[in-house]
Amino acid sequence: MTPKINDFSIHVATVNGSGSQTANSVLLRAIFQMGIPVSGKNLFPSNIAGLPTWFTIRASKDGYVARRRDNEILVVMNPETAAEDIAAMPPGSMIILNEQIQVPPVPEDRIVYRVPMPKLMEGITTDVKLRRLVVNMIYVGVLAEKLGIAEDEIERALNAQLGRKPKALALNHAAVRAGWEYSNKNLPKRDPYQLERMNATTGKILIEGNTAAAIGALFGGVTVVTWYPITPSSSLVESLIDYLHQYRSDPKTGETTYAVVQAEDEIAAIGMVLGAGWAGARSMTSTSGPGISLMAEFAGYGYYTEIPGVIWDIQRVGPSTGLPTRTAQADISFVHSLSHGDTRHPVLLPSSVRDCYDFGILAFDLAERLQTPVFVLSDLDLGMNMWMSDPFPYPEKTWDRGKVLSDVELANLPKFERYRDVDGDGIPFRTLPGAKNPKGAYFTRGSGHDEAARYSEKPEVYERVMQRLSRKLETARTLMPPPLITEDPGAKVGVIAFGTTHWAMIEARDQMRAAGVPTGYLLLKGLPFTDDLKRFVQKYERVYVVEQNRDGQVADLVRLEVGELSPRVHSVRHMDGLPIDAVAVTEPILARERAARGATAVAQGVGR
Amino acid sequence: MRESRHFATTTPAGPPAGTNHIGLTRADYDGAKTTLCPGCGHNAITSGIIQAAFEAGLEPHRVAKLSGIGCSSKTPAYFLGQSHGFNAVHGRMPSIATGVHLANRELILIGVSGDGDTASIGLGQFCHMVRRNVPVVYIVENNGVYGLTKGQFSATADIGSTTKAGAKNDLLPIDLCAVAIELGCGFVARSFSGDLKQLRPLLKAAFAHHGTAVLDVISPCVTFADHEGSTKSYAAVKEHDAPLHDIEFVPFFEDIHVDYEPGTTREVEMPDGSHIYLKKLAEDYDPADREAAMRVMHEARREQKIVTGLIYVDASKPPLSEDLHMPKQSLASLPIEQARPSRQALDSIMEALRTGG
User: pTM, whole model, 2 decimals?
Assistant: First the structure.
């Protein structure tokens, strides 16, 4: 039996609310501490307790962190899904079965370890409720013993999770120990899976995208935060609240340098953001699809009246309530032009936790420079799952507050007109309420207005203002983060992705290269596109835009952008609510490439 | 109009004639020319706001004028032209006001809304603004109809009131003053655009209030609701107006002794040292008694009276900014040193994420 080292996925099937989160985090962190690249994906229901939930931990010596379709190891803790979960396991896989759970006969070529979990718990605590919560630690012990996770790593991880609760710590530790000992004494190893120490995670952090975004906002100097609770966005503001409390309030007086308001709905949340942005604060809110829908009217107001604000959209599956706890990239075209009329918003597309941090800062600079709402489109996979990253660097640049006239500057001007394009970049100057010089006062309105902010219905005035806003978006192109481009030598095929699709793309490119299809890759970081896009498409015979939605929203935007090159642009979509995996990228592209290259060969043959 | 012999006249001493205590003239509080219908009650309220702001000596640059959508919401363009203005989307001015206050609590916010803007599309935001006690002088110019869309009923239209075309309203009106009192509002007043003598001191008192001040001002729509059958016509309001008291306001900067007979007048002190004097009319009315206020509102509805005056006042409730422990300085003007934590702070956050601790 050839050992399989540091390259497999562990799939844990439990019941929501059963306390398995701690067990899974301990496993994830212990593997991380062993220096092995690791990622965790929580597949959870829209429910507080009782429905099935799965957690997948992928260990990958090659550093791949995308979801995989197949798992090598299954932990069966949920009677309701046990039969289905086991049926999905391939030959050669390993199954840890809570013996209490009745399952149909498992084929001989699956390696089953039966563990009398309730019995083992009897020796640990008499409290029935605690038994139910702590029983998950038994499978941690069994896995640790079977896979070779050193006990001190489990201990460290447990300590990090429960160090502040000594009683719980002792109890959990006893359960791990019981699982480990039972496995060691009674279950001879028959599986090939093995974890061995590496040094690929030294110095790295483990973090969720929402937490990273919160840290970005914290260091971006946010002062006004408004929100309405919604999955999968809530944890962004909740962790921001914790950090603000810790780092931006005076421990003695309780005085803060920020304000957080839980709004009555998302309309009020964005209204407060715009009110605060108008008055000069760095303001933000965070939401998901349904909240974005509610924000539409104010989003257009912010665009037309030119008020900065930052709106995070942690995308989930729509339409409507959709699948609130599943992931998608399907809000792009809606958000890019959110609101009626000719509205266009800059959109940032973070693909990593590092991007979440960087864009948490950058979004404020862009919003204040461009005087417009800026949207950041993360997703549930990025926002709520744990990702490895190098630590975030301290921002070396100061902040950009944009074109705000001071009292002195105002005094020196012959006159001030709020919407006059003085510099030719489409961005006018603004004053803040409270400016002492009466020249600075102006009236903000969502109705037609001229350069001096006066009410106007004149056709030529309306058109002039709208054309200037369009010029402003051209300026935005030069300020958006450029895409990340990496190109294989000799590649004829280009691939474009954004957001969390990036992680499947890294793996897919390796697979395609191995299959004889090297690629050039453009990782998109925002909209509007920078000039890099057209140059990239120009270089390749075929360009595949890979995204997690039904209709190929970004493929459409790319086609519009590249005009006559649009026949080169093809669309690859993944849309089942689970994070995209590499095969979902590789298979359709290779199929089309085989067809295209075959057809070329045939055509050449006929030509000769 | 009601006159009172007991009140001193409040001509400020000191600054040159025709100027207020900060040296500005009334013209410094003017705005653009109105585009509303001639005779519109809203125009009278606008001039009331101008006069009250002048007399109170508001610094125009410290005022932000906010509104929603509708005839009433156009009016901030017609007063205080030296102040920043914000004409928001329909029914959502309260959230804008909340954001402005969070960004810069030094600003005095004057919000103008209508009955459609507040009681229909914006009822939710209105309620939550009151609940949070956002410091806004929130004026509802209430005529019971949608003017800009030509005369449909709003949610404050009285039962039995008719449109110009004769359609009857069968639904109970929403009484914004009662709603505000129920939600804990610390300053609730009702007035009439035809009674500036009452409205002006109410406005000045509202400027001195530190939380949400709701002023529901009945303001007849001359075009769509001034006919017989409308309960908010000039004639109907004049007939049913039932003032609770005569009102005088003495700002903090005026050292005026008000001479009144014992037992005739109530005195309310505002947080800035200003005083409101309420002279008893037919019955003694205590605006600090919340239950009495609710009772008066119910009786008024039963008797089809429009009770006007300072219905409820409690200046002690802390405004939102104090609830949130915000600094005195405006958040908008915080320097980066205060808004961006240190390098060490980031290091300690990263270390915790590395170890999981």
Answer: 0.96
